[in-house]
């Protein structure tokens, strides 16, 4: 039985790869829908990019919904400096011909969780948590129906990538993150601590390009583009593929390891706004609320990614 998921996303080159990995794995994953949120770029672009990625994968059957265009309580902060003006800079991909669904993403999330049997839908947020938090606030009854939330966001040992203390997805909408982390839904968190171990080296990118398919070449061009920013910033041998860690975890959880700990979100400090305060060493008596991932078999991850992308 494939696992039913909703991908909530703000594409983003690495979001695109995460979506492609899910669409390439129909035996294990059934993508019920893709919900777009404002984040890396504003909502009109994230909603457009999600459809571009579906068309690249040849999956125009996957419904795409536009969601919240701004965080719950703050002005939107975007990341064109990383992802380029379109959010998907790098490859030259055609504008989508498939249309957006008329339903708002938040309504789709609520309706789907109410319609499917309890414990059979996994939420996979790859961007700010605005859509998920809004759905939970508007329809508290759906929280207990969620099978699991597997999200990319936060950091502890790798601290921040948008401020000294905060990771981008959580920083953009800390109030939303606070709602989701406090919801009681089962959480698996892919922080920078693990995603920074998923580095696209030249050999790994060459493997994508060598697939020779439109998908393989586009993925290579995407990682080429945002790699320039990350290599310069971190001095690393490649760029981290953050969001595909979420999809890879659904396919191969054995590639990952972490700890079940308490994670709280800072929402009031000017200095550490959006920080994920992870009790990694279990020094508080706060109840664990998340499996916080710390390690990854990077070669296994890239082998899986290359093998699956080759199917598209």
Automatic annotation (TrEMBL):
One BP term from GO: purine nucleoside catabolic process
Segments forming domain Inosine/uridine-preferring nucleoside hydrolase: 5-303
Keyword Hydrolase found: yes
Gene Ontology MF: a single term: purine nucleosidase activity
Pfam families per the UniProt record, alphabetical: IU_nuc_hydro (PF01156)
Domain of life: Bacteria
Keywords: Glycosidase, Hydrolase
Cellular component, GO, one term: cytosol
Matching PROSITE patterns: IUNH (PS01247)
Cited SUPFAM superfamilies: Nucleoside hydrolase
Protein name per UniProt: Purine nucleosidase
